[in-house]
Amino acid sequence: MTAAEALRAAIARLTTAAIPDAPRDARRLLAFAMGIAPDRVSLHLPDALDPTQAAAFDAAIADRIARRPVSQITGQRQFFGRTFRVTADTLDPRPETEILVAAALERPFVKMLDLGTGTGCILLSCLAAMPFATGTGTDQSAAALAIAAGNAEAMGLTQRARFRQADWFAGISGKFDLILSNPPYVAEDEMAGLSPEVRDWEPRAALTPGGDGLDAYRAIAAGAGARLMPGGRLGLEIGPTQAAAVTGLLTAAGFEKVEVRPDLDTRDRVILARWPEGGGCGAA
Fold it and tell me: 248 to each of 55, 116, 168, 266, how far by Cα in Å?
């Protein structure tokens, strides 16, 4: 069977299974099975698949029909122009989170903290673009931290990035001029409405804290001031309905210059805030 024939059959299978973007996913999975870059698929469509490639492609399509995310099948995801390893132990890096990274890079920083680092995509993307900076990524999941450490090694950032198992600020010392987080923020009653790729395959603890989805923001708002240098910045990804609530938490904690940034669909997605130059009630 040629790659073209296998691709046509795979698209039909995915379409019948009501998989969104069936042609796109089939091409990405074919590239994975053939060991080529996705943008090279068209050049190799006349090629015959060997038995190993055919078996790998069939297994990948079966996984996708089971609603397993493409990134978990291939083991990688592009984020901010770089490739990150992902597994079922990590949140899949999303384009919306790139808005948080871009905002962080609008000003220089020397020492950053990434809370709930997952794959390390936020921390490592920021450090790669800021050669003089160092940073710490924390996560409750030891498995996720192992993935993040591997990504740091692959990107040549092991000398500037370190990782620590921690529950938000527990055990974290020192001061940072930048704190970022994409915390779990899906409310408990919203979980059922998520796509199967997210709800059934990504780590629940990275998606929701339960309840109203705001517990992580409460913890970060309460603890960030003690870990920020005067004038330090805080950046958070939020759900599209959470801007007012999170703004209120940060303002009550003493943060200034709170700003909401939209995503490409004009939904509220990122909140930026500044710790006062003279410190505040949370400084320590």
Answer: 54, 22, 20, 21
For residue 2, the 8-state DSSP code is B
Question: Does 185 appear as a known binding residue?
Answer: yes
35 has binding-site annotation: no
Helix (H, G, I), strand (E, B) or coil at 83: strand
**Is there a binding annotation on residue 118?**
yes
168 annotated as belonging to a binding site for a ligand: yes
Q: Report the 3 state secondary structure along 108-134.
A: CCCEEEEECCCCCHHHHHHHHHCCCCE
Tokens of 63: 């996984």
Question: Can you name the residues that pair with 160 across neighbouring β-strands?
Answer: none
Residue 119, marked binder: yes
The secondary structure of residue 50, as a DSSP letter, is P
Is 116 annotated in a binding site? The answer is yes
Any idea where the domains of the chain sit in the sequence? 3-66, 79-274
Query: Does the annotation flag 120 for ligand binding?
Result: yes
Superfamily name and number for 79-274: Vaccinia Virus protein VP39 (3.40.50.150)
Distance separating the N- and C-terminal Cα atoms of the chain? 67
Q: pLDDT tens across 9-63, in order? A: 999 999 999 999 999 999 999 999 999 999 999 999 999 999 999 999 999 999 9
> Do the annotations mark residue 137 as ligand-binding?
no
Q: Give the tens place of pLDDT for each residue, 174-227.
A: 999 999 999 999 999 999 999 999 999 999 999 999 999 999 999 999 999 999
Is residue 6 within a helix (H) or strand (E), and if so which, with residue range? helix 3-16
pTM tops 0.90: yes
pLDDT digits (tens, 9 = 90+) for 62-121: 999 999 999 999 999 999 999 999 999 999 999 999 999 999 999 999 999 999 999 999
Distance CA 58, CA 70 (A): 14
